[in-house]
C-alpha cells in the first residue's frame, strides 16, 4: 500500500536558486527526450552519459525513466504532451531524511553536491517516513516549496467486528465519538482553537496597519500549519480510540452542506466559516482506512435533536440534552449515538 507524504520545505536563498535551476533543467530534459523518442518512433535506450545537461547522474536517470513513461502515453493521447510545471525527482537511493532536514544532490559549479534543506515535519509524518521510502518529488506551489515522498506501508487487516462508532464534529468540541457498546470520548479543545484564531486575527490586524504583507502571509502559513497539526492529532487519537475499542466501522456526518445545517450561534458564525470540518473528516478517513477500519457517511439531519430512546425531536439548551421520556446526556453525545443509526449516504445502514 502506497501513500504520499507532503512536506513543506524552507530552503535558504542559495538553496532556492539551485532548486529553481535543477527543476527547470529536469522538466526541459524530459520534454527533449520525449520529443527525441517521438521522432525515432520508439523508446530510446539511454544512460546518464547520453544526456548532456547540468544535473547529477541519478537525476538524469530519473528524467530518462519519466520520459519513457510519458512516451508510452503518447499513443493513447494521440498527441505529444509538453510538461510545463517545473519539478525534479530523486529516487530513494539519492536522498536522506535526518530529523527535520532532507538531503539530496543538485548541480553546483559543474559538480554534483548534496544540500540539506530544512523541512517542517509533524510527528505523524515522521512515523510514516519510518516505512519503506519511494521517490522524492520537489515542486513549487503558490510560492512554497513542497516535497512529496512516496511511502510503502503494510496493508491493513480488515476488522470484522460488529462494533460501530459515530463521530460528531463541531466547534466547541472538535470531535465526539460514541461506540455502539456505549463508550464515549471527547477530542480536542474548541475554546483553545477559538483563542488561537483570535490571536492570529489580532496579529494580522496590527501587521495590516503597517502594510507588512509578507509578514501577514507568513502568519497565515503559521496559522494553517497549526490548524492542520491540531486536526492530525485529533484524528490520530480518535482512530487510536477506535482501534482500542475494536471498532470495525466509523460513521461521520456528510459535511457537504454543513455551513447551512450546522448547530451554531451568531458569535460562532465566523469560526464556522473558517474552520475546516472537511479536512478533519478526511484525516479521520484515511487514518481509519490505514488501520483497516471502514468509514461511512450518514445523513446529518436532526442528529443532535432526535432522542435515541423514544425518537422525539427536542431543542437543546446549551450543551445539555433532555427528553420528556427521561433520557438526558451531553448534546454532542446524542449526535454521536444518532450517527451510528442514521441512514448511510449511498447505501443503507
TrEMBL record:
<protein>
    <submittedName>
        <fullName>Transposase</fullName>
    </submittedName>
</protein>
<dbReference type="GO" id="GO:0006310">
    <property type="term" value="P:DNA recombination"/>
</dbReference>
<dbReference type="InterPro" id="IPR001959">
    <property type="entry name" value="Transposase"/>
</dbReference>
<dbReference type="Pfam" id="PF07282">
    <property type="entry name" value="Cas12f1-like_TNB"/>
</dbReference>
<dbReference type="InterPro" id="IPR051399">
    <property type="entry name" value="RNA-guided_DNA_endo/Transpos"/>
</dbReference>
<comment type="similarity">
    <text>In the N-terminal section; belongs to the transposase 2 family.</text>
</comment>
<keyword id="KW-0815">Transposition</keyword>
<dbReference type="GO" id="GO:0003677">
    <property type="term" value="F:DNA binding"/>
</dbReference>
<dbReference type="Pfam" id="PF01385">
    <property type="entry name" value="OrfB_IS605"/>
</dbReference>
<dbReference type="InterPro" id="IPR010095">
    <property type="entry name" value="Cas12f1-like_TNB"/>
</dbReference>
<dbReference type="GO" id="GO:0032196">
    <property type="term" value="P:transposition"/>
</dbReference>
<keyword id="KW-0238">DNA-binding</keyword>
<keyword id="KW-0233">DNA recombination</keyword>
<feature type="domain" description="Probable transposase IS891/IS1136/IS1341">
    <location>
        <begin position="149"/>
        <end position="258"/>
    </location>
</feature>
<feature type="domain" description="Cas12f1-like TNB">
    <location>
        <begin position="277"/>
        <end position="339"/>
    </location>
</feature>
<comment type="similarity">
    <text>In the C-terminal section; belongs to the transposase 35 family.</text>
</comment>
